[in-house]
Amino acid sequence: MRRAIAYFALPFAALSALATGPSCSAQESSSRATSSSASSGPSTALRDTLAAACSHDEKSFARFLTARNQKSFARLTEAARIEFMKRFVLLADAGKPTLSVNPAGRPIVSCETPYGTVELQIGGADLRDSLAFLPLDLREASDPDSSNSRHILMGMVRENGEWKILSIGLLFLDLPSLEAEWDEAQTQSNEKAALSTLESLAKFIESYRRTYLRLPESLAQLAPPKKGTPNADAAGLIDSALASGEFNGYSFRYVIVGATDVGAPAKFELSATPKPYGRAGKLSFFRDATGAFHAADHKGAVGDATDPVLKTE
To answer: Tens digits of per-residue pLDDT, 1-34?
Structure first.
C-alpha cells in the first residue's frame, strides 16, 4: 500500500496487554445498527472514530478517547497527535472519509487519499455491560483479494453514557503511560524541524527585505493575504500558523536590531523556544544579528548569542 504506515506498529514499550475479551452475551444486530437508538452504539462510535482519524480531525477524534486519554492526547504535540491518528487507518496522509454500510447493515469507512484508499469494515459488536469488542477488517480498496485484508479486534468502553476506544487488538490504549516515551521519540525530530524552520524564516525575511527594501515589522507581515495579491502587509512567504509565532510545539520570536541614524542597515534576531519544555523539545535555538545560529538547553527560556554555535548548511 503506497505511503502506508506500519499496521498498528505502536512504538510504545509501555503498552499493557489486555486479557481476551469477555464472552458474548448479546450480538448487535444489523437492524439495531441502523435504528435511531444505534446513534450512541459502539459500532457508530468506532465508525466516527475512524472517520476522524482518516481526516486528521483532532477535535472529533478526541471525543472518542476516555477522559484520561483525552488529557494526554491534548498534551501531545500536533505532530504526535496526527501520527497517532494515522495508525488507525494505515495511511500517512490525511484523507476524505466516506461512510456506507454493507448488505448486512454493518458500517464501512472508506478513507481516500491521493495515494490510496483504505476500506475499514466494522463487524457486529460483542457486548457485555459497559464493554464491547468489535472485529475490524482493513484492506486497500483497489485490492480485490480479501485474503490480503487485516483483521483486528477493537475494544470499546462506555464512559458517562458514551462509547470510547479502549484497546487496539490486545493492546490497552493508555496514553498517560505512553507520554514520556512518545515525548522522547519526538523530541529529536521536533528540534531538527524547529531549527530548519528558523533557518527558513531568516531566508524569508531577507526575501521580504529585497522585495520591499526594508525589514518586516513582524512575522505577521510574512503571512498570506486574506484576499488579493501579496503586499508589504501580507507578503505570502509563510503560512498563517507560523506567522502567528507558534508552530509544531515551538514559539518563534523576531526582533529588529542594529539600525542606526547614520544609515547602517537594520539587522534582526530570531529565536525558537520549546513550549512546553521537554515535550516539544529541550533545545532553545537563536539566530543572532550576524546570521549565526546557536542552541542550548535553557529549560524552556529563550536562547541568546552566548550559546554554542551550530554548523548549518
So the answer is: 445 443 333 333 333 332 333 333 333 333 333 3
- Rounded to whole angstroms, how far apart are CA atoms 98 and 106? 14
**Domain 16-173 in CATH 3.10.450:** yes
Query: Long-range contacts made by residues 14-19, C-beta under 8 angstroms, separation at least 24?
Result: 14/174, 14/177, 14/178, 14/181, 15/171, 15/172, 15/174, 15/177, 15/178, 16/171, 16/172, 16/174, 16/177, 17/170, 17/171, 17/172, 18/155, 18/166, 18/167, 18/170, 18/171, 18/172
- The domain limits of the chain are 16-173, 181-297
> 301, 212, 310, 189: which is closest to 253 by C-alpha?
301
Over residues 182-195, the pLDDT tens digits come to 666 678 888 999 99
Find residue 295's DSSP bridge partners. Answer: 285
How far the first Cα of the chain sits from its last, in Å, is 35
The residue written with cell numbers 472519509 in the block is 97
Q: Which three cell numbers stand for residue 206?
A: 531577507
Pick the closest to residue 223 from 250, 207, 242, 251 (CA basis).
242
Cell of 24: 458474548
Q: Distance between CA atoms of 69 and 308, rounded to whole angstroms?
A: 39
Mean local confidence (pLDDT), 67-95: 88
**Is the pTM value of this prediction over 0.70?**
no
Provide the grid cell at 183.
515525548
**CA distances in angstroms from 82 to 22, 64, 73, 197, listed in the order given:** 32, 15, 10, 19
